[in-house]
Please model this.
Amino acid sequence: MKLLICPDSFKGTLNAQRVATTVWNAARAVLPEVEGRLLPMSDGGEGSSECFAFLGATRRNLTVTGPDGAPLDAHYMLLADGKTAYVESAEACGLEKTTLRDPSTATTFGVGELIRDAAKYTETILLGLGGSATNDMGLGMLAALGFTFYNKEGAAYVPVGKTLSELASFTAPSTPFPRVKALCDVTNPLFGPMGAAAIYGPQKGADPEMVEMLDQGLRHASGIIAPDLAASPGAGAAGGLGFAVKAVLGGELAGGFDLISQAVGLPEALEWADLVITGEGKLDHQSVMGKVIGGIAERTKAKGVPLLVVCGMAEESDVIYDAGLTAVFPCTRYKPNGLPSPEEAEKALYHTCENIFRMLRIQ
Model:
């Protein structure tokens, strides 16, 4: 048997690497002859760096400019292929990186510093979007990459949310910038009722008056840079970082799972496998609507490869099976109050998988 193990994390208890290792340990205990590949998965954001590290990526630490302008310790990952880096934008401009709750002054300059450093070693940057404290349309990031922005008086400056409305012109650097692919799972346009400021501004600290000011700034600045692209799906991601990637860097906006699955070699692994096991903490009808479980199910269904899902708990639904899941196995042996501890979750997962492989052994 050629077994591919490619789970997501069990949120709050086990990361994807620990899930994959536990499934594999159970498989080897029951089926010593089994061949296995472990590809812990993520759809971008939390857990992505750890998944890449498990697959041989190296971590590069760097001090950059934080969202509040103060020095910030951050990192990115150099992937094992030697050609690709994974940069999580929230490492340099995330809400969790500062007590600042003012998107009118927060900057993405540190994101550009991470990309600039990664470009020394790689050809392609995978840029995770989401969780930002910013609303500067990614112009801080671009400034760190060598773009120069000028206000209406002709003075060079680094725009932030409250000064986007002052933008009059810009120049691009003469040196080439790297190929950027942004992991983006939202479809918001840059401005308007569904734009970056209106939808995400309040959670970053913006009151209604500030939201309106930020929205007007996005409308003005995008009109100078690339007015035709402001309505592009994902342009409003991460305070407008999506717009900067697409409109200025000429990058690609794609689903996080799609880009990560390509980067870790999932398509090739699916060609090799004759059984796939994935999983996540809670399985419900939303699990199969994109992201990790849904993305894997779509691919295994197309190839006719059986797909088993292990999970902490599951919502029974015909939608789940219609999406291509062969069978679902909740780890319900232990039911502590609230979330189980990592040790309890691992034990329950192991015994569930042990029974799965015992069943497979009798075939």
Observations:
- Residues 22 and 346 are 7 Å apart (CA to CA).
- Residues 2-39+265-361 form a domain with the Rossmann fold fold (CATH 3.40.50.10350).
